[in-house]
Amino acid sequence: MDVSLEVINKSFGSVRVLKDVSLKFPSRKFVTLLGPSGCGKTTLLRMIAGLETVDSGIIRFGEKVVNRLAPRDRNIAMVFQSYALYPQMSVGQNLAYGLRVRGTPKEARAAAVERVARILEIEHLLDRRPAQLSGGQRQRVALGRAMVRKPDIFLMDEPLSNLDARLRITMRAELRRFHLDLGATTVYVTHDQLEAMTMSDHVAVMNGGIVQQFGSPAEVYGRPANLFVAGFIGSPPMNLIHGAVELENGAPTFASEHARVSLRHLANRVHAGQRVVLGARPQDLRLVPSAAEGNAHGRVWVVELVGSEKLVDVDLGDKRRLTVQVRADAPVLEDEAVHVGIDPHDVHVFDAETAQRVSGRESAVPPFPGSEPLGRREHFRPIATSWRD
Amino acid sequence: MSWEILWRHTGRGVIFVALCGLTFVVCFPLVWALSTSLKPKSEIFATPPTLVPKAPTFENYAALVTGRPQYFQSGGQQVDTGATPAQFFTRWFLNSLLVTLGSTVISIVVSTLAAYSLTRFRYWGRTFVPYFSLLGYMVPSIIFVFPLFLMMVRLELTDTLLSLVLGYVSITLPFCMWLMWAFMRSIPIEIEEAALVDGATRLQVFRDVVLPTALPGIIAAAIFAMIVSWNDYLFGRVFLNSLDNLTLTVGVMLFFEGTHVDWGLLMAACVLMTVPMASLFMGLQRHLVAGFGAGAVKG
């Protein structure tokens, strides 16, 4: 069942937490609401659940407007960040509760609980109380409680944030697999971009109550719509350099105190004198041997080894730094003078005034199947213009 | 260093002995009452006094439970004293029980619902009502008792058990509500939301999720309400009049009236008065702490 949100607004007192949010989640897809804390993503999820009222706007499940429906009439299931298991009930009773209050006969209830327990491998825990379970086990019970009723829509509010790092990675894959097996529309809230990137079909990046960009993980990573998305998505984060467009031999060139990059291929998108921000991911930067090949020059400030790669922080002066990702065996020493090569085709250019993407790196993004009609164009553009509010 | 070792060895012993002494001091009146209640009349004033009765007897208890009129010896002659407190003991016991149960049930039902409302719904005044009600409890009950009595007169409820039930509710309810409010606040709202999403109605949520989780709080509040109602003397003394309607605390005082005090009977009455509350407390104290909200959310 698809979920559409049409111009949703919400305020708590004088604080506007959601501003004209419009999104359409296609049926049976895994959609993630991603953003820093306080961006309104959980409020939005709770509105879909019916736990929060809508100030203005329309929420539809399929064709049906659900604004005024109680949570119990929406055929949804929700996994809470705190798991919210019923402390006085055994695991089996926890799983069966949703069926019990809906009047499912005892035999059918037992069968459903058994089926879910088998899938989640918690059959041996059915008689225990939540207090006697580990974090991972509680998480599974919470998931089982959501699965047992075969809901149309699955809502998950940061379900992995209370697990340790290792378990989180395992559960990520499992959640994705559950989603594929169950075939329900899943709306997942997280502040962890890795979770969003790895599990989702679509990601809605939110900040300040506004949807900054809605698209496939590849799109939000490869074609960030504005400076916020560019800075938020990607680890290590994208390097952002402020500068202006100058004409060099008739071709537009990005120029700042510390770097120069030709923008010849963007000649029709930028104009001389335009103040822009250049974005370049650490993976797209190289250390080059000669000053002539380099676009920026500096001194190695610190080198961090992260497994198969090294992150080299290059100090360009004035405490401006660029992070360059190199192979782990690259011979880079701290305090060494280096030259950074920036391929013009790998950079993202944003207008410094509007913070919107000007262009760049068009071809590198494979269009994500099924994502295009959803309308990055229809949806993010009208609302993303004022992301700095 | 040697001081340290010495202290470590003797310190525990000293503390142990001190605590034993304190326990004895606290328990002695109860032990003495029990001992006296089991003594025949001849032994009660024996010198030297005995802690363990030499010839234990249950005659005092039998007199209270069966309501048998008591006679006392006067110059070798048995004299019928007419109606005695012992004859009313079972009646008073029942009265106390009824009044205590009545006021406790009303206090618990009202305070639980009020606390749920105060913690879960948004309306004007919900933040200061709990504190204000606690303040009400801190005012000595002697200040309430006469205005309440005048109200009872207007309601024509004086000398009825109902007046006492209402009187007790007026002093137990504020504190019970504050207690339940503090307790309900600590119940994570997510488990109720989970139940709502699971398909429960508000009432089902309250019955299936809130009440079981709030049980330790309810028990604590109930114990408080019972102890206050059971042990009250002031309200009973002011509100009640006829012998048939008295509660235990007021009635037992009548054992003192007249020229003669039957200490054995009085002590037996005291012991019997203590038993219900003591056994209740021992039976329920386990629930006071057990399983409070454990495992509902990330622990």
Helix content of chain B: over 70%
Tally of strands of chain B: 2
Shape of chain A: elongated
Q: Which CATH class of the largest domain in chain A?
A: Alpha Beta
Multimer state = heterodimer
Rounded mean pLDDT of chain A is: 86
* Rg of chain B computed from alpha carbons, rounded to a whole number of angstroms: 25 Å
- Please summarize the sheet with the most strands of chain A: 6 strands, mixed
Do you know the CATH architecture of the largest domain in chain B? Orthogonal Bundle
Topology pattern of chain B, helix = H, strand = E: HHHEEHHHHHHHHH
* Estimated share of beta-strand residues of chain B: under 5%
At CATH level 3, the topology of the largest domain in chain A is Rossmann fold
Query: How many runs of DSSP E, i.e. beta strands of chain A?
Result: 21
Instruction: Count helical runs of chain A.
Output: 9
Beta-strand content estimate of chain A: 25-35%
Spatial sequence of strands, sheet with the most strands of chain A: 6-7-8-3-9-10
